[in-house]
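Weekly modeling sync, notes
Attendees: S.R. (lead), two postdocs, one rotation student

Agenda item 3: backlog of single-chain predictions. S.R. asked that every request posted to the team notebook include the full sequence so nobody has to chase files. The rotation student volunteered to paste the first one in as an example of the format we agreed on. Action items at the bottom.

Example entry:
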Amino acid sequence: MIGRDATPDAARTFITANSVHKTDAEFRKGEHAAKLIAYAKGKSAEPAHMECSTRSNLLQHVLNEMGYRTRKVAIFDTDTNMESHTLLDVWNATARRWETQDADFGIWWQDLKGNRVSLADYAQKPDKIVPCSAKGCDWSHAKRLEQYLDIISITDKATGERYAIYTTRADLRRIYTKGNKRGLFCEVEAKRCTDGFTRAQ
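Predicted structure, as returned to the notebook:
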C-alpha cells in the first residue's frame, strides 16, 4: 500500500480497545481520557464510557499532538430526526489523500482495490468501498452506517472550513427539531453549512 502509516491505526485501536460505547451517568461525568488510560494501565476494572463523538475527539487530539492533520466527519440519516455518527479523517501526506478512521466501530474504509479512502469522498457510491477491521473487510462491520450516508458534514479546524454535502438519498425537504430550533438541515445545523451545502459527486 502506498504510504501506509500504522500510527493512526494504532491510536484508533488503543482508544477502541480501552473504552466502551455507553452514554450513561458514568459517561456524563467526563474525564474520558484519564479513565481510558487508567483502564489501559490496569488501574481501573471498567473501560472508559464513551461514544462516537468523544472517541473521535480523543483520537483527533492524540493525532494532532503527534503532528497529523485531521478533520472531523459527521454523517446523518435524513430518515430520522438527524441521527448521526462521528468519525475522523486523517491526512495521509505520502498518498496525498484523506483516510477515515472510526474509533467507535474500530474500523477504517478502503476502496475495492485496497486503498484507504475517506468515507466523505465515497458517500454517494458506498458500493465502491468497504469498512475494514482486524477481522476483515465487510459491510457487516458497520451495516447501520450505510443509512447515515445521506448528509456528510466536514469540519477542518486547521483551515477553519465547515461545509456539508448531500447524496441523492438525502431527504432535503425534511423538517428537523434540535433544541428550540426547527427547520431544514442547514437551518438547524447552520454551522455545518457555513462554507456551503452541495451535492456529493
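Discussion: group reviewed the output briefly. Residues 6-199 form one domain.
Action items: rotation student to repeat for the remaining queue; S.R. to check formatting next week.
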